[in-house]
Amino acid sequence: AQRVTQPEKLLSVFKGAPVELKCNYSYSGSPELFWYVQYSRQRLQLLLRHISRESIKGFTADLNKGETSFHLKKPFAQEEDSAMYYCALSSTGTASKLTFGTGTRLQVTL
Amino acid sequence: EAQVTQNPRYLITVTGKKLTVTCSQNMNHEYMSWYRQDPGLGLRQIYYSMNVEVTDKGDVPEGYKVSRKEKRNFPLILESPSPNQTSLYFCASSSQGQGELFFGEGSRLTVL
């Protein structure tokens, strides 16, 4: 069975500090990994996916198959980054078998 | 505007009183899904549908029913709600073969 673990419920950082939101997964095949974000009073939305290898809003995430991790990173946190972040895994590459982690709330303070 | 619309957004009901949460999308997506979000448990899939008349159980289907008679609609039915179904519910859709889910705004359900 596929599983996604986000060990931190809350991550609090100062503005301008680096951010790393941890995500580990368990799956025997080749998964596709995603990060979704939910800003206050907004819908849950896709932030980035590992297959596209792009940086969105300054965030990047690298799939490490050896460590089965997909940590989300940003070098300098901004106040507008405060949100709930969910890591998700798809075993099929499609939305039909998307498994979410429990989420990490990022709080960026001045 | 392309979006997923859920109704009602907020509902308080009593144990055993049947209710339906509607979900509609205007993006011609084949795939639709329902999730519930609970503190400490994240998002858990209830049911999903790959296309019209095709539905399947997710991880937590007990106590729920769905139907997919039309491509745009995917209602979630609670035949006899119980307090443990108090939760925040999200409907989502996606184009077939794609990994990006488009979410509704959520429906907060309280069962007394």
Largest interface: A-B, 23 and 25 residues
**Number of DSSP strand runs of chain A:** 11
Q: Provide the β-strand percentage band of chain B.
A: over 45%
**Number of helices in the DSSP assignment of chain A:** 0
The average pLDDT value of chain A, as a whole number, equals 91
Task: Give helix and strand order of chain B, one letter per element, not per position.
Answer: EEEEEEEEEEE
Outline type of chain B: globular
Q: Rg of chain A to the nearest angstrom? A: 13 Å
Tell me the number of strands of chain B.
Answer: 11
The class by helix and strand makeup of chain A works out as: mainly beta
* Quaternary structure state of the chains depicted: heterodimer
Strand residues, percent of chain A: 35-45%
End-to-end C-alpha gap of chain B? 36 Å
Taking pLDDT < 50 over at least 5 consecutive residues as the criterion, the unreliable ranges of chain B are none
What proportion of the residues of chain B is helical, as a percent range? Answer: under 10%
Helix content of chain A: under 10%
Separation of termini of chain A?
Answer: 41 Å
Q: What is the approximate shape of chain A? A: globular
What is this entry, summarized?
The complex is a heterodimer of chains A (110) and B (112). Chain A is mainly β and 110 residues long. Chain A is 0% helix and 44% strand.
What can you see in these coordinates?
The complex is a heterodimer of chains A (110) and B (112). Chain A is an all-beta fold. Chain A has strands spanning 3-5, 10-14, 19-21, 24-26, 32-38, 45-49, 60-61, 72-74, 83-90, 98-100, 104-109. Chain A has no helices and eleven strands. In chain A, strands 2, 5, 6, 9, 10 and 11 form a six-stranded mixed β-sheet that branches. The model of chain A has no long low-confidence stretch (mean pLDDT 91). In chain B, strands 2, 4, 5, 6, 9, 10 and 11 form a seven-stranded mixed β-sheet that branches. In chain B, strands 1-3-8-7 form a four-stranded antiparallel β-sheet, with no helix packed on it. In chain B, β9 and β10 form a beta hairpin. Chain B starts with a strand and ends with a strand. The model of chain B has no long low-confidence stretch (mean pLDDT 94). Chains A and B meet through β5, β6 and β10 of A and β4, β5, β9 and β10 of B.
